Amino acid sequence: MTHSAQIESPFSEDEETELAMDLLAVNDEQELDHFLGNLLQRGASAAGRRLPWALLLRLGGLVKGAVLKILPAVGRAFSGLIAFRAGGPTGQLAANASRLLGMEVEGMSGEDQEFVAAKQLVRLAGTAAANAGGDASANAAQQAVTHAAQYYAPGLLRSPRHGQDCGCGCGTCTASCASSGTWVRQGREFILRGLWPNHST
Hints:
single chain, mainly alpha, two-stranded antiparallel sheet, 45% helix, disordered C terminus
């Protein structure tokens, strides 16, 4: 991550809208992986960079963990938006998405809640890619995503079971963020499991 790391999304409002709609429209995990790869390269390109393959894989694993934490049904051929049932809302948006995103979505329609969440995830990914620099290490990718998450999804950096510093070196986290995980190869794709608190795929 560069010393002058930016916190503003590298995308225009129209681009964020387009990308958020594309995110919500993915039909399976392969489409999701492809979308995230293009999204990250687009964010880096906006900052005049191109992500090396190793760094793209690491950023992709971290961002995918965030997406599946906040929009758990994305990429699982889910049809329809939020359906409210006796047990609470079910659909693409996680029940605790408002806390994870650090923003208020109560009062919005289910469709609007998902769209707002998708835009925040697009901003997080784009900002992380724009700040990632040329260091392809796991620590550099982690710091870039952590820095972006502080602004666009701060709840991902907090866990009720932990109060210690995350160890990422950012100096402001108070939880276990993406400090550990396991790389799993599925065909040509690499997926990083166990990144965010309570996340599983």
